[in-house]
Amino acid sequence: MEKYYDIDDIITEEETVSVIFQKAASGVGIDPSSETDFVEVGSKVEVPFWLAHELQLRQAISVNVPTCFNQKTRLEIQADSACVDLRSRCPYFYEFGCKIASTVGDRTIGFLLLSAFKSRYKEVLTKAHTAALTATSRFSMILTKEETSLYEAAQSSMAAFKKWRMGGPRFQRASVLGRKRKSTD
Amino acid sequence: MYGRKACQLVKELASGEKGQLTLFNIDLIDQVIAECSQHHLELQSLIRKMQEQGLDVQTSRNADHYGALIHHLALVRNKRCLMAYVHNRAEVIQSLIWKVGPILPQQIEERLSHSEEEYFKKHSSALKSYMSRLELDLTVDMVPPKDPYIQVRVIDDIGEGIVLSDDKTANFAPHSMHFLKRTDAEQFISRGLMEELTG
Description:
The complex is a heterodimer of chains A (about 180) and B (about 200). Chain A is mainly α. Chain A contains 8 helices and 5 strands. The longest helix of chain A has 23 residues. The C terminus of chain A is likely disordered. Chain B has a 3-stranded antiparallel sheet with strand order 4-1-5, covered by helices on one side. Chain B contains 6 helices and 5 strands; from the N terminus they run H-H-H-H-H-E-E-E-E-H-E. Chain B is elongated, with a radius of gyration of 26 Å. Chains A and B meet through helix 1, strand 2, strand 4 and helix 2 of A and helix 1, helix 2, helix 3 and helix 6 of B. Chain A: One of its GO terms (cellular component) is GINS complex.
């Protein structure tokens, strides 16, 4: 409940999972393959996580492990975790992993997340402090949202440290006004 | 899919830069609310159907029950997205007074909805009355300055005849440089009209 207004949490829960209905449901148009507004028992439907989670609690459906946690991804992470494009698989890989692990009851997901994060975190930190801005754009394309915010935090703390050491203007234009400055001429 | 539009609304918040306001998307909000009304109607008709069949709505678990449940969950989800949209914008609006002062620049003002403007006005007047009771200006810089005066350059058109705190008027022509009291210059810098010169 503490995350009720949290934007990232809301977007994480929009991630779709494929589920199998154990109970029929009438009057809902969530199954694109059926022509009527009726979901049969045993039909396989893609639904967003927020719906799947609640229905799972009421034992109306069973949830399959999403493709971003399948065997292929696991093998890739084991091989070279720093180079795997996690963003295109799932932009909130870790948050979603934590949520889905308890829903599908797969204990190995936790270990997968931990090992992936540990090895990628090191890479994120070193790149944030050393790499030039141009070289990082390709690297930041494969980071998940959580990793991107860590990456930005590392960069901004480095910038703040440099500013503190060199000195600089104390006051600045408020950031809400946006970066672009309209030309006044 | 249910709740897709509401999530689009929230994604709009996330896609902008942090702490930036986008245009208040009243169209999409209306669409989400229309979707909610639709869910509500379908939910009611399912419940009515169950009652007509003589079933106990509280305990029976048939197809109609699960259909109604899905509509209910979609309603709750849409509500959460709408609330988050308004709530997160309100937090940015609250922070505006600390960052740009009580007068909103036009580029921000045109992105607010009417009730958001009202909220900003009320919030800033509440803050103002609190500060006048304390006899302390809380919006000034938190770090004690080394020098009460700073050198600034005007980078945008401010207008003539601005009365400063020592009852003198100054002519801030663009690109002119001034030696001002920090407290006077602060609000102009944060609004992007002046910049501080160092060294």
